[in-house]
Amino acid sequence: MSGFLAGLCVAILPLLAAGFWLGRRTAGSQALGGLGTPVEHATFETLHTASLAAPPLRAGLTEETARKSARRLRTLLGTDALCLSDQKQVLVWDGVGGHHRTEVMERLAGPLETGRGEAFRLTCDTPDCPVRWAVVAPLTVDDRVHGALVACAPRESAVLVRAAGEVARWVSVQLELADLDQSRTRLIEAEIKALRAQISPHFIFNSLAVIASFVRTDPERARELLLEFADFTRYSFRRHGDFTTLADELHAIDHYLALVRARFGDRLSVTLQIAPEVLPVALPFLCLQPLVENAVKHGLEGKTDKCHIQITAQDAGAEALVVIEDDGAGMDPVLLRRILAGEVSPSGGIGLSNVDDRLRQVYGDSYGLVIETALGAGMKITARLPKYQPGVHSAGRLTGG
């Protein structure tokens, strides 16, 4: 990632240089309001324009994103016309000379294949058309050409060739960021699917068996448990975003525990201590439920006596601190480290490593799970959740009452 950030800086610095040139060209002897020299003013204008062009490009290269960013990119270059293309067609033409679209697309075959820029004269039978010359700068991501930026002007200009190349590099960086965002989204979706697949068939079978056992003896209890089961499965298989709220996750955990308690009776006791102010905190979907399932499994596994699970969620300033603790069989710390490192698969498919990985991906490496355990000593899992994180927004409550 450090290399990528270095590349980002390399792409932006020449863009600022282009901004200096544009500022000198456009500002000239104009009187500038406010503080700063003409060069500083031009630099700020360039940065502002670039910041407006970036958001659409972060969604990839499409007709819509090209249309939303083309005007800003043309302003950066100060050209009469600018077009963006993908590998097959001109996505947008901004400015004069739109009748050159077909000719430009025909001339893009070489640059799109080789990834090398090119400049050429345009043929035109329209006497008053100001577009006579074009500069092609390919848009590349990971050595793959995604499309091209074409800047059109009345005459040849070595400065425009350099400026178009640097702006194209900046656009390529935005497209690379879009690719990273899409890869991250696909990875999170794959991991959520993996967690859904890990919902134990034994849990489903046992839950339905318990519900069936109450149908004749206590129909009302069977109905309540069936609703709990329906709400839990609906939450687990929902398709509405990557994030949820702590309140929704705890609500799903409550459904899960109701089904577990129906099976194990008074062998399982649960204590919850939840600070109301942390309930709206957003967190990755299906993040805490697997930890509670892990506590149930290791709390009751190999034991004939009672198991106690405590779930706390505390306000810790800029963070919410969630702790899930059981007094069960515990685990060998060496085995736990190997599970979290992905060296071995956990028995029963409980997704500790999955949850740890997702927390680190969303919040950074310092936000992985903290797990304290030993054989016969139970397990304590601590998760820190920032209250505010860019890009982390819950999809809203979808569970039943």
Automatic annotation (TrEMBL):
<dbReference type="InterPro" id="IPR010559">
    <property type="entry name" value="Sig_transdc_His_kin_internal"/>
</dbReference>
<dbReference type="InterPro" id="IPR003594">
    <property type="entry name" value="HATPase_dom"/>
</dbReference>
<dbReference type="GO" id="GO:0016020">
    <property type="term" value="C:membrane"/>
</dbReference>
<dbReference type="Pfam" id="PF02518">
    <property type="entry name" value="HATPase_c"/>
</dbReference>
<protein>
    <submittedName>
        <fullName>Histidine kinase</fullName>
        <ecNumber>2.7.13.3</ecNumber>
    </submittedName>
</protein>
<dbReference type="GO" id="GO:0000155">
    <property type="term" value="F:phosphorelay sensor kinase activity"/>
</dbReference>
<feature type="domain" description="Histidine kinase/HSP90-like ATPase">
    <location>
        <begin position="279"/>
        <end position="389"/>
    </location>
</feature>
<dbReference type="InterPro" id="IPR050640">
    <property type="entry name" value="Bact_2-comp_sensor_kinase"/>
</dbReference>
<keyword id="KW-0418">Kinase</keyword>
<keyword id="KW-0808">Transferase</keyword>
<dbReference type="Pfam" id="PF06580">
    <property type="entry name" value="His_kinase"/>
</dbReference>
<dbReference type="InterPro" id="IPR036890">
    <property type="entry name" value="HATPase_C_sf"/>
</dbReference>
